[in-house]
Design brief:
Elements lengths: L1 E7 L5 H11 L7 E5 L6 H10 L3 E4 L1 H4 L9 H7 L4 H10 L4 E8 L5 E7 L4
């Protein structure tokens, strides 16, 4: 299972999410996109998932908080308890033993981040 984790600010555009995903490694072979549950219904994310032809996996914030990530953002850690929503969401949704194959990439406007993980699924 190959999952793209996405972190983003309110009001993010489809273009920014797409740009971050492409910088992290692209949509080729993805089986899902994932983010923190409270943002899983964002319009731009729904459009990206539709464009990629994959479902959205909503990951509860308490699950993200248990995941150590290579990237560490103080702001994200204060709000979500993990260093990177994108990396943690990708790892959580890809299942036990998942590993990052594309660490966090950031859109030029800094409103979206993406990371890609592979794993055996939930």
């Amino acid at each position: 299972m190959k999952v793209a984790g996405l972190g983003f600010r309110q009001g993010v555009t489809l273009g920014s999410l797409r740009e971050a995903l492409m910088a992290a490694g692209g949509h080729e072979g993805l089986t899902a996109v994932a983010t923190v549950s409270e943002k899983a219904d964002a319009e731009a994310l729904r459009l990206l998932a539709l464009e990629c032809g994959v479902p959205i996996k909503a990951v509860p914030a308490d699950i993200l908080a248990r995941i150590d990530t290579p990237t560490q953002s103080e702001l994200v850690a204060e709000k979500f308890g993990t260093g990177s929503v994108a990396e943690a969401a990708a790892l959580a949704a890809a299942g036990p033993g998942a590993r990052l194959i594309g660490t966090r990439a950031i859109s030029q406007d800094r409103t979206a981040t993406a990371a890609i993980a592979e794993g055996d699924g939930p």
